Amino acid sequence: MYINVKTEESILKSTIRSEALVSFLKEQGATGCAVTNDNLFGFINRRDLFKKEGLNLVPALSFELDTNDVLPLQVYAMNEKGYKNLIKLSSAIKMSPKEKCSSDDLKAYSEGLKAVIPFYLGDWPKYSNLNWITPIYSEGIYLGVIRTNGEKLQIEEQTQVVAADNNLPIIAMHNSYFIRPDQANAYALVRGIDAGSMGYLTEEDKNSYMPTQVQLSQWFSDKPLWLENARSLIASSNINYPEKRFHMPQFPLAEGKNDADILRELATAGLKVRINGGVFGDIPSKYQERLDYEISVINGLGFASYFLMVSDFINFCRKEGILTGPGRGSSASSLVAYSLYITNVDPLQYDLLFERFLNPERITMPDIDVDILDTRRVEVVQYFERKYGSQHVAQIITFGTLAMKAAARDTGRMLQMEPAELKQMSTLLDRTRKTTLKEAYECSQTLRDFVNKSDRNKQWFSLAYQIEGLTRNTSTHAAGVILTPQPLVEYVPVTKGTDTKHITQWDMNEVESQGVLKMDFLGLSTLRVIEEVLQSLEKTYGIKPTLHTIPLDNRATFELLQKGAVEGIFQLESEGMRNALMSVEPTSINDIIAVNALYRPGPMEFIPQYAARKKGEVPVEFVDASIQNILADTYGIIIYQEQILLIARQYAGYSLGQADLLRRAISKKKREVLEAQQKQFVEGAVKQGHTAENATAIFEVIVRFAEYGFPKSHSTAYSMITYQMAYLKANYPSHFFTALLNKAVGNVSKIKTLLAEMKELGVEVLPVDVKMSSHECKSEQGKVRLGFNVVSGISVATADTIAHATKSAATVNEFKFTMNVQKYEKEIESLIKVGAFDTSYGADRNSLLAEIAAGGDDLSFFFAEQTEKEVATTSNYDLEMSVLGFSLEKHPVEAYRAKGYEQMLNKLTENEQVQVIGLIEEVKPTITKKNQEMAFVKLSDETGTVSLTVFPNVYAANKEKLNKGQMVQVTGKVEVKYKKTSIVANTIKA
Questions:
Q1: SS3 of 804, please?
Q2: What is the pLDDT of residues 936-968, one digit of tens each?
Q3: Three-class SS state of 57
Q4: Of 291, 379, 420, 583, which has fewest CB within 10 angstroms of its CB?
């Protein structure tokens, strides 16, 4: 009898979560309910949960008719046809400008639906005659009546008259927006967040909880038929949902052509060129055999059109100059994908197995994920819309939630807490480093004291706790795009999009459960750096290098990696990865592939072993000599999933398809599965001439490494990007660092780190200069010229104005007359401080600043001839730091390097004991939960900054030394939490 329940997916209009709803229904002995949100968000997840708990979820929808007079309506799907119509109706409403239902859509999508007119809403005298709507719903239509707390509304009598006049039954309803009566305040809170300010709940709102079955029976004791109608509505909804099957679109072809033949033709032609270095030639037999096999599998599974679709949009990207990655995931295992230029990894060269991508013995939808230059991803999505029609293409919705801090902050704002209180609350939560309010409260006595300080603080925490995790908003998935053979609404409900016309109402998992084709177009910012470098090289040399033709044996590239100069290189930017590379000393692309695969929790422990075996420091050992050929490249260590498949095939006679099933089965770690697989493996190995004892030992090794094994296909593809970036950095350093600096603008810490490495590598950095600089940083004769973009407040327009003013100005006085000095006073002052007039005009910074100070409001003396007066002597370092946050001048720390202080702040390793020197940039004292003073100190050197944690005992002994601008020597232990490095101080010396 619960036919009008709103859940959290009716965003910020309900606090009911599906799990809590299921629990309540089971407590009440109910058979199910209808969720009547104004959308179908989360329906599949909710339906599956209800099914698991043996409850019937009736698909339903609330909306308003787009007529002169507002008519609210609720419709309920009774059968499969009704379910499909509900999807179409919801889509039509969400796509309409007013998000209301037109009369045409109401009629078009009514079959299989029952309707309820909630007669307690609206101006009902206008609807005394409902003859126009009753014929639309052949399944049935009701007039809804509510009796909150058993109270009869005045409209009830009129409802019965209208029902009699129109021969319509009445149904008992109740508006449910939260579950228990004591959750009314939390409901009021989310309504306030939605509205932007707290309002007052009406009595009806306060009673919008879920009544018990006993309460409903009491409230409608005189009208048992109305309750029976509600029960009947729930019970009569019996939907046979379509079983999951693949819905593969077809690539458009000319009449008489078929996708299987076209795929073979294009793949063969492509491979003839790729395998012969860009020249049309013969295909070696092993490549031809692999190509024939893959094509037979692809065509046999009916996936030829899919490959043609991916190839087509990759060709669009190449034609339009949109950079794409060399491959991603298991698709790099496909020779067909390589032949069609979908990937740039030759799978035979790297022993990549097609069965990791498509296993004919375990049929799944193919999944080719493509990395795309992030600034141009939308062009690819829009191309899809043009190619296949907007009614067939949609991006995928995602849902944001009220996370811990958002829930706490919004609750405090609604309760009108003071800004200082909100800041204190936020700080307390940050310090716990937890992700939920419950965890934060349990671990922090200080937070508990804050909560228990007053009744309002208790109310704040209680309400924030209740709304934490509720759905807050919707957005678009960063990568997922779906393509359907029939219009989208035949499979999924949609709503209005931005980059594309449509966004699905269901999230990624829900969409995939319906068997529709999903493609991932991943916008990768790394490609932006590569693209900028390539464009810079083209501008400098007139030729834009081609990434897939760069040599993979470049000595300078490997020397760079051996030194650990990894800033800005994809996948390598961490101190741990830097140390791993310096340990392994890579000499081939295979080493990069291996390190990328090993550098993860678990297999990371094998990096020292790999390095030692590679360098011959320890002997290479194999678990069995018969599989030496499979493990030779990794020095006897199982690193990749593909090696497990090859061992199963070679040692135990498995097909590669069977071997992949073995790998999947082992990863599930179920004892009975492991026992069955071990039996099959040992029996197969014995047939191959091995002993059962050795086979058992090999199987145990496989089980151990299956947990850690990484797809070599993915590691190889991504290592290509790693290598390409390292190659560009090693051979074109000024162009590479220019791109990195432009990307890092606004991130002072990152810029400092880049400048430090540039210094190590001997890449000269030129200062901002009013004549020589552009808006962005640029490569200038093998050096890097800083752009105006590193100076806060200098826009592109201002940079253009400066360029115009300096074009013909030989002196600063000439510049003054061209430039509107008064208008750009702040910008010019910043440019003086960073030395932008030093070189081109030979000006002194402090003197120019003194002229500004002396010039008054009209700046009439700016850049005038120098007069005798006292001029401040602020150092260039301090001037640059005040504007940029970094300096090209020597950092004060550098004077101490010759005295033996070698430890750099950008090269700290977790858990190591260190002795460092640095400049104090900021001191933040605080009070511990034991009411003791301590501090967090920001320490800098020429390489960057680090947080210094000074606990009470150390703080008490060194408090007077901890001042901004003080140089200190610190000993302590390095900690890394949430990817942030800090030093816990033991001693501090000025």
A1: helix
A2: 999 988 888 899 999 999 999 999 999 988 999
A3: strand
A4: 420
CA angle 390, 392, 394 (to 5 degrees): 75
What average pLDDT does the chain have?
90
Amino acid sitting at position 471:
T
Residue with tokens 């695969």: 597
What region, left, alpha or beta, does residue 607 occupy, with left being phi > 0 and alpha being psi -120 to 50 degrees?
alpha
Task: Name the helix (H) or strand (E) containing 404.
Answer: helix 404-414
DSSP E strand stretches across 38-162: 56-65, 71-77, 113-118, 141-146
Burial of 738 (0-12, 13-18, 19+ CB in 10 A): buried
Report whether 56 contacts 237 (CB < 8 A): yes
Query: What pLDDT sits at residue 757?
Result: 92
The answer to whether residues 179 and 209 touch, using CB atoms and an 8 Å cutoff, is yes
Report the distance separating Cα 136 and Cα 119, nearest Å.
18
Phi, psi (deg, nearest 5) at residue 3: -110, 5
Q: Are 122 and 72 in contact (CB under 8 A)?
A: yes
Tokens, residue 168: 């319509």
Q: Where are the beta strands (DSSP E) in 659-800?
A: 765-766, 778-780, 783-785
- Structure-block tokens of residue 509: 């998992």
Strand segments, DSSP code E, in 757-894 are: 765-766, 778-780, 783-785
Helix (H) or strand (E) holding 344: none
The structure tokens listed for 264 are 């073979």
- Which tokens in the block code for residue 515? 């068997």
Amino acid at site 190: V
* Residue in this structure with the two tokens 């073995």, named with its chain if needed: 662
Question: What is the Cα 111 distance to its own chain's centre?
Answer: 40
DSSP character string of 418-457: -HHHHHHHHHHHHHHT-SSHHHHHHH-HHHHHHHTT-HHH
Token couple for 370: 């493509």
Model pTM score: 0.85
pLDDT higher than 90, residue 500: no
Residue 332 CB-half CA count within 13 A? 25
How far is residue 558's CA from residue 578's CA, in Å, rounded to a whole number?
A: 13
Which two tokens mark 84?
């499909």
